[in-house]
């Protein structure tokens, strides 16, 4: 299983990574919120170890970004913040567990195993529109009950639009949901993904809002 460590303390990252690898985990690490966003867009992790005190942005930003796009990856917050209010905020924001530094690596590993086990039985609401169904937990798309093979970026484009049927989203909003703020996207990239989605799901699934962007279904 692959875990992502989001932590800016290089020595702590090294210690956690060595400990988890010794127990069979495959480990990636990033040091800030931007890196975490890009990593979770590019790869699906079994769990995430998340520090709150990240440079430039809070770990809460990472957590809220995950949950806003229906990413149910289990998150264990590991932080020096030991106030009850911080624990409550973290859990209410969608964290699966909360550990205060300093901690034992054995405890972290055990908690990771526990949240992964719980996540396997987690239920998240499916998104449905006419004969199209998206399962955010399994990241599957069905049309009339038949699985449709989408690339990861096609899937993200569909999910971003389907979350708000009938509401137009501009191209910048869609690019941010699909890629994050990388600034390296070709101007017609979203249009290409919309073209692919129409070919796979039907021409009437996504409406073009000329001079602005797109919406899922008919515009309200």
UniProtKB/TrEMBL annotation:
Domain Response regulatory: 2-116
4-aspartylphosphate PTM sites in chain numbering: 51
One Pfam family linked to the record: Trans_reg_C
InterPro entries named in the record: CheY-like_superfamily, OmpR/PhoB-type_DNA-bd, Sig_transdc_resp-reg_receiver, WalR-like, WH-like_DNA-bd_sf
SMART domains found in the cross-reference section: REC (SM00448), Trans_reg_C (SM00862)
Protein keywords: Cytoplasm, DNA-binding, Phosphoprotein, Transcription, Transcription regulation, Two-component regulatory system
Ranges where the OmpR/PhoB-type domain occurs: 124-218
Compartments where located: Cytoplasm
DNA-binding region: 124-218
Protein name as annotated: Response regulator transcription factor
Organism: Dokdonella ginsengisoli
